[in-house]
Amino acid sequence: MKNKTINIGFVTCLILMSLIIVFIRTTFIVHPISGKSMEDTLNSGDWVLINKRKELSRYGIVAFSDHLNKDLLVKRIIGQPGDSYIIQNNVMILDLGNSNSFQTTIQIELEKDVANELRNRTTIPENAYFVMGDNVDISNDSRSFGFVSNKQIEGRMGKVLWSKK
Fold this sequence. Notes:
Oligomer: single chain
Strand order of the largest sheet: 1-2-10-3-4-8-9
Number of helices: 3
Largest sheet: 7 strands, antiparallel
Helix content: 10-25%
Strand content: 25-35%
């Protein structure tokens, strides 16, 4: 009888631990930062917690997969679905307000190919985001590769777990 009680307790503990592990693996990613595109917010060598279930919003930091290099990149959301914009030459004028009145805007210089690709639209499509690194002088971001789809986004940064600084 004692062996049965121990076995039931052991099995229950294993099931509970398995459920906890599945929850953690389906909710979070621990991601190392490499490169300088997010300095001074994040630095090369930092480790961040990415929450796969956290809602995305403007100015939130997200991790997403890069189609070309299969890398996981970390950038800040600047434009979100439904935001209006105008392309003039190679400059995007992005409306940051909710009324499409262009009272609060940001001007972003785009690479020529991206400007030509985005020129035929006036709003950021549903399930797409315009992302930029905080260190705009060196960041490879939506200015050079266009919108990031919701399918590419792994999650939103929760917190820095460890920093070299």
